[in-house]
Each structure stands twice: as structure tokens, then as C-alpha cells.
Amino acid sequence: MHFNSKTRLLVVAAHPDDEVLGCGGTLAKAVSEGAEVMVVFLGEGISARFPVGKYDSPEFVKQTAQRQKEAAKALKTLGIKKVHYGERLCCQFDTYPLISIVKEIEEHMESFRPTILFSHNLSEVNIDHRVVYKALETACRPTRSWIPKAIYTFEIVCSGNWTFNPHFKPNVFVDISEFWQKKLQAWNCYEGEARPFPFPRSNKGLEVLAEMRGMSVGLNKAEAFRLVRQVV
Question: I want to staple 88 with a disulfide (CB 3.0 to 4.6 A). Which of 43, 102, 116, 129 is the partner?
Fold first, then answer.
């Protein structure tokens, strides 16, 4: 995976923080090499913490605004300026017509014209991640000129490693050794998400994953992806 000034990298993520967890180091690396990066969040990311249907409280409004503020700070840390914030309810993507998600992804692809696309894989506990993957399959039908030539899926720790039968099988590894601190700095912009190790989203947990993925290919730290389509 190579980046340069002609690279247009689109990240389609379910929630704010998925972009850092799944590919934060790679995004920092891409920006440093001149790539244009845009992140699309399809949902708001915090409503699962509230009782179902109870989304009109001042606390909900406060936490929603706080999550966007944290996301903006994380993206700024990674050097990313282009972002779209969606409003779909967290862990309820399966209640929306799939076509509505497909159409939104298509609109962003047609507007941004990505050469590379990053998004979720199917082997996740979080239903939103799985729905995004299915919507992406439909949106990326190779029938339009603006469909990206390279499409990769990433892994989200906790959601991916807590499945009963995990089967995410990466075949592309990006060396993020030089960008690890940048990823960690961006992750720490999301307040209240980390817990003490051995929780996977602790700072140590994220580092263990990066080192494990790196170790499998002879690197210090890496982020893992699965290339699902490439047109050469």
C-alpha cells in the first residue's frame, strides 16, 4: 500500500473512534506522504449508552456534542480536515433501510472520488460494523467510474476479537512504527473510552495488538487490513 499526492483515501466508519482504532496510524502515514484523506462517520456513536428510545435528554445532547468535539480533535491530530458526521443511532444500523446507507456511501464516493477506501470487515460483534460492510459491498459495485480501485477492510479491537468465531484474516500490513505515538495521541482524544489493561481498548491493549500484527510480518508495530478488491 503506497501513498502520494495523487492518493485520495476515503474512510467509511460506523462511529467516531473507529477511524483511529482501525487505521489511525495508517491515516497519519498517508497524510505525511501527501495523501488527501476524508473520513465519513455514518452514526453518532453514543446512543447505545442510553435506554432505547430515550434520546431527548440534555445528557444525550451533551454527550453527542462531546463525541463530535473529540472526533474533530482526533482527526486534527492525524492531520485530517475533511469529515462528515452522521446521525444514525449507535448499534441500531439494522433498523434503517440498507439502501439509505448504500446511497449515502455512494454520494460520498461520487463527490470525493477516492482511489483507496477503508472500512469495516464482516467479522465483528457490533451490528453497525457488519451493516456498513454489507452496504459497502452494494455501493462498490464496479459499475461507475468513481468506484475506488483498491478497497480494504480493517479490524476494530473489542468488536472483532470478542466474536465467538473470529475470522478476520488480514493480508496487508502497514508499518506504523513511526506513527504509533500519533495514533495513541489521537485515541486519547476520545475521553472515557479506555479502561485499564487487559481491556483491549486500553493504551497497552492497542499496543499489544499493533505489536502482534507487526510481529507476524517482522515489523515493530503494524495495522492489519484485508484487501477485498484491487483493480490494476
Answer: 43
What confidence tier does 167 reach under pLDDT thresholds 50, 70, 90? confident
Would the CA dihedral through 152, 153, 155, 156 be positive or negative?
positive
* Sheet containing 150-154: order of strands: 82-88, 36-43, 8-13, 116-120, 150-154, 222-230, 172-175
CB 187 within 8 A of CB 74: yes
Q: What's the pLDDT at 71?
A: 97
* Amino acid at the residue 16: P
> What CATH number should be reported for the domain whose range is 8-230?
3.40.50.10320
- 13: helix, coil or strand? strand
∠ CA 148-150-36, rounded to 5°: 65
Q: Where are the domains of the chain?
A: 8-230
CA 146/CA 111 separation, integer angstroms: 9
What pLDDT, in 10s, does the model give residues 170-210?
999 999 999 999 999 999 999 988 789 999 999 999 999 99
